[in-house]
Design a protein that fits this description.
single chain, alpha+beta, OB fold (Dihydrolipoamide Acetyltransferase, E2P), 6-stranded antiparallel beta sheet, 3-stranded antiparallel beta sheet, 18% helix
Length: 125
């Protein structure tokens, strides 16, 4: 499986790409494989300030629905508009076109609690 080195990861299988005080969040290749074919992504927290670890939405696969957890405290600013018509992008390109939300965050120290690619690889075996 692929876990890009430039991303940080959570134990709940989300990834985060940092750009200043902004970030892009999605689920890992491991998570999308475990879930199976993604059929719907729901995020109703746009514009809301959330604490690290809070549920920011759900992802629905053919056989299950799973919560999505925000990696760091901040405000969700955008849902990936491509997922409305093509939720399968999460399966085909989880680190690119299958991103889920963009956010702003204010406490960079929370990034220290996230895993690098090597640590995440160890977690999922």
């Amino acid at each position: 499986m692929n876990f890009p080195e430039h991303l940080r990861y959570t134990k709940d299988h989300e990834w985060i790409l940092i750009d200043g005080n902004n970030a892009t969040v999605g689920i890992t290749e491991y998570a999308q494989r475990e879930l199976g074919d993604i059929v719907f992504v729901e995020v109703d927290t746009i514009g809301k300030e959330l604490e690290s670890g809070a549920v920011f939405g759900t992802v629905e696969a053919v056989k299950t629905v799973s919560d999505l957890f925000i990696p760091v405290s901040g405000t969700i600013t955008e849902l990936n508009p491509a997922l409305n018509g093509s939720p399968e992008l999460v399966n085909s390109d989880p680190y690119g076109e299958g991103w889920m939300v963009k956010m702003t965050f204010s406490d960079p120290s929370q990034l220290d609690g996230l895993m690098d690619a090597a640590a995440y690889t160890s977690l999922v075996g």
